[in-house]
Amino acid sequence: MVKADPAFETLLDVNALRVACDAVLSAKNADLSEIRSALLPILKQASADAREQARLKLFDDGSGLLCANRISWIQDQLMSVIFDFARSKVYPDGMDDLAVTAVGGYGRGTLAPGSDIDLLFLLPPKASPIMHKAIEFILYLLWDIGFKVGHATRSVEECIRLSRSDMTIRTAVLESRFVCGNQDIVEELQSRFDSEVTTGTAPEFIAAKLAERDERHRKAGDSRYLVEPNVKEGKGGLRDLQTLFWIAKYNYHVRETADLVRLGVLSRHEWRLFLKADDFLWAVRCHMHYLTGKPEERLYFDIQPEIAKSLGYQPRPGLSAVERFMKHYFLVAKDVGDLTRIFSAALEDQQAKVVPGFGGMIGRFANRPRKISGASEFIDDRGRIALADPGVFKRDPMSIMRLFHVADLNGLEFHPDALKAVTRSLSLIDNDFRESEEANRIFLSILTSRKDPGFILRRMNEAGVLGRFMPEFGKIVSMMQFNMYHHYTVDEHLIRTVEVLSEIDTGRGEEMHPLASKLMPGIEDRQSLYVAVLLHDIAKGRQEDHSVAGAKVARKLCPRLGLSPKQTELVAWLIDQHLLMSMVAQTRDLHDRKTITDFADKVHSLERLKMLLILTVCDTRAVGPGVWNGWKGQLLRTLYYETELLLSGGFSEVSRKDRAKHAAEQLAAGLDGWSAKDQQTYTKLHYEPYLLSVDLEDQIRHAHFIREADKAGKALATTVRTHQFHAITEITVLSPDHPRLLSIIAGACAAAGANIVDAQIFTTSDGRALDTIVISREFPIDDDEMRRGATISKMIEDVLSGRKRLPEVIATRAKGKKKARPFPVQPDVRFSNVLSNKFTVIEIECLDRIGLLAEITAVLSDLSLDIHSARITTFGEKVIDTFYVTDLVGQKITSDNRQANVTNRLKAVMIDQPDELRDNMPSGIIAPPPRAPVPKRSRA
């Protein structure tokens, strides 16, 4: 049983529980079901009361490991009481040779509040039927109490035989712990297991456990820096510590982690680090189980604030309480990685002596150690860089930096022993080291390497070198941002950004990033670009805007790295403006000339434009899986080409009216084979905004679409086009114009599960609307996406025609969906009359939800505002939607009172879901006669 702290006995009065159970048999001739029914409330109440005491003590002392030990001890007592009752009162003649052992986490003497109870019932070679009935009696009681029980019933011989062929069973037996019954049979199992199974099989077991770990990491995301980590199974989580202990127990025959200090595997400091990490992770896990009331293992955003509160974290300037908690979590996960590396080094040294070619993954590296040309302090040990002798770093601290440089030059992995030595030598990286010209030159060479700088930087970060060499970087190590947009910690994001830049730089990103790949060879100053990419988020977590603060850091750090004053200012500018191009591309109307001229005024030069584009691509790609898509790439390309034209002096000076006339002539010429009458009719349908902002190819396609609808006599028609590379699907809607048309279309898309990213809104000269809605693509195959587009189009037509009511379809879609997570997104409405020469730009920012866009656009329509175009941008849980609007006579919204009224109405929608607004939404807009030919929404 668990070696319990005497204080554990206050959790449960075992003697009183035994007496209460024994009293159950005072009634004569009770059958088994009646006995179980009488025992159940007694045992259930005792378990609940004891576990509640364990919960209160967790909040009192904060120790997760103690909490897990307490719950395990409580479970031991319950098992013993149930077993002794069955042996003495129910089956007095058949249980003497039966034993109950704990396996799994329970076998280690640790249980989380929601953990399964894993049991191994050990039988003698010839088990009687009574033993099986007794086991059944015990299991039924445990299930009735409410425990999830994993169990196996085997003899010692079966355990030994199965352990040889099944690694899962072998691990379970390795962790088996006597709980109650016949202790002799448990000792026999453990003795035979040590002599018959573990002897000589350590390499096989270690290889299997490391392979299991790698597969587990792959399934959990293969990064210890995911912002919603799996505390149990994820990289740097509890299972990694448990894997270390399994291997230690199997290989070194130890019972406690403290024994690893005695054997020299871990230093005393590292052993204490192991205990601290174990205790912290157990605390997080126990709090998660208590908070959710279930065995939740993933630290979701929803529960992170509550866990932070339970653990006592407080906010600090620049960091919320939850961000401080998660930074601590990721630092612990990093410690677990350090311990894994240190342990692996010691293990490999031992195994290499007895198993030639063991090398971490057995046989992976077969060559003998050899010298590395020009680097006498290092050796190539089977494809990994290692130290020539243990004193290398002490004699010359600069060798720490050279280790990573030589590894990069020679394409070598790192020997675990070398990284362990680096971690233990971090104190040698002092101010003199940081200011050293050689150290900075080497670092810049690593950063701008044409091989794999991301890999080297990640190893430097894991070993602690990056944070020591650049204290500014050390401040953002393991820092998370509490939002759904960023998938990684800040340091991991920066390293991934460098990896994307390297991919583009070496020509491997041409298919995904054609423009950036085309521009990269012409970049004259690679150094500045790589430095800007690495440092662009270096000032996250400060009170000051991180772009502004980051530019200040760059001005201080770049000269130390050896950059010239001109380069330093370029890096500072890129960091200061690193969000500019993304925000303009995603939230502004790129067909509005004022957008381009304002952007060009900030960029000033083609070289800056090129570098800012590449930085923006790298930054977006490195945010997380699925964040980058072809649509964002197309927006950036459009912004780049329009700005390049202006900066190079190629922007047309021809009047708007003349350009529109020329576009109409091109459209007429493109309607090849049409009658002159049809050419004239369908060309005159469009106003200047349409002719100047829609590509000729799309104008021709729209003309065919409108003529076909007219021939079929359709007042309402839709057409779908997919764009595989851009990862979008266009749905074009032809309909009688209506003030709430965009609102109803947006609601229909929400009801169909489509995410709108852009909307082009035009009114024809005969009073119809021609709106193109751009939605995010869902399926990789065009046929599947076309079927999805058809389904969404059908939903739009049903809602517009009144066959379906919008409030009902949105309610159906929202039913069962989780409520918005508690992210700190303050609703905001911003007006600007300087971003466009013709329109007022209204930008809203708030927490996303189903149907939000429909409600926002309905409010704008209610307030008699004409929407010319809309940009819908989602950053995780947050939306930034931009609307280009005028009043009904085509004028900007300049009145302060009117702006205030619009702001108040919009904020009411952004904060609450206005039921009366949805109830008043029209069921359909198709009127029998066509509307008068009044150009309503985009003529101004």
UniProtKB/TrEMBL annotation:
Keywords: Hydrolase, Magnesium, Multifunctional enzyme, Nucleotidyltransferase, Repeat, Transferase. InterPro entries: ACT-like_dom_sf, ACT_dom, HD/PDEase_dom, HD_domain, NT_sf, PII_UdlTrfase/GS_AdlTrfase, Polymerase_NTP_transf_dom, UTase/UR. GO terms for biological process: regulation of nitrogen utilization. Uridylyltransferase (UTase) activity is inhibited by glutamine, while glutamine activates uridylyl-removing (UR) activity. It comes from the Bacteria. Gene3D superfamilies: 3.30.70.260, cca-adding enzyme, domain 2. The keyword Magnesium applies. Its cofactor is Mg(2+). Residues 730-811, 841-920 form the ACT domain. NCBIfam families: PRK05092.1, UTase_glnD. Modifies, by uridylylation and deuridylylation, the PII regulatory proteins (GlnB and homologs), in response to the nitrogen status of the cell that GlnD senses through the glutamine level. Under low glutamine levels, catalyzes the conversion of the PII proteins and UTP to PII-UMP and PPi, while under higher glutamine levels, GlnD hydrolyzes PII-UMP to PII and UMP (deuridylylation). Thus, controls uridylylation state and activity of the PII proteins, and plays an important role in the regulation of nitrogen metabolism. This is Bifunctional uridylyltransferase/uridylyl-removing enzyme. It comes from Peteryoungia ipomoeae. The gene is glnD.
